[in-house]
Backbone:
């Protein structure tokens, strides 16, 4: 049986995915946008079977850092 922490992590993973996609879709460069979308999908698929809460929390924190990085790169593109 899944505990409450699992459901919170699941929510955070889904929110991270939405945040990443929203951020990427702000890019004007279609080629890099498509590359980023493919990369994000591959990363989420590669980690979909992770069950350890500590590992999931780590991956979420890495993903949030990536959101910040992508936002700064898009701002630099203008």
Residues:
């Amino acid at each position: 049986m899944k505990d409450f922490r699992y459901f919170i992590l699941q929510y955070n993973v889904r929110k991270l995915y939405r945040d990443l996609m929203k951020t990427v879709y702000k890019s004007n460069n279609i080629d890099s946008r498509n590359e980023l979308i493919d990369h994000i999908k591959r990363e989420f698929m590669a980690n979909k079977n992770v069950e350890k809460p500590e590992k999931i929390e780590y991956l979420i924190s890495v993903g949030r850092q990536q959101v910040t990085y992508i936002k700064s790169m898009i701002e630099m593109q203008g």
The helical segments are 4-24, 30-46, 53-77. DSSP finds three helices and no strands in the chain. The two ends are 48 Å apart (CA to CA).
